[in-house]
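Protocol step 4 of 6: structure prediction from sequence.
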Amino acid sequence: MNINKYRKLQFILKYRVTVLIISIGKLKEKIVGKFISERGDVPGWVLVVLMTTGLVTAIWTIAAPRLSGVDTFLTSFSIGNCAIPKECIYL
């Protein structure tokens, strides 16, 4: 093998190794960047949980008396204290 071909082959191998190292570095940055950026939005989740809790509390406050009225109606109707079901409606 003459010297020019050897140097050319050496240059090509160095170039390919350099490109490979740079590509691996970029891939590593992308992967690490994904994991670091996917940590989550804590204030957003706290806001979602608080809003959900507030909505459930508001709906429960409105619905609780009506649900207890339905419960009273059903228990009194099934026990037999109510001759006519219309008289037992507390809604």
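Step 5 (inspection) to follow. Residues 77 and 85 are 7 Å apart (CA to CA).
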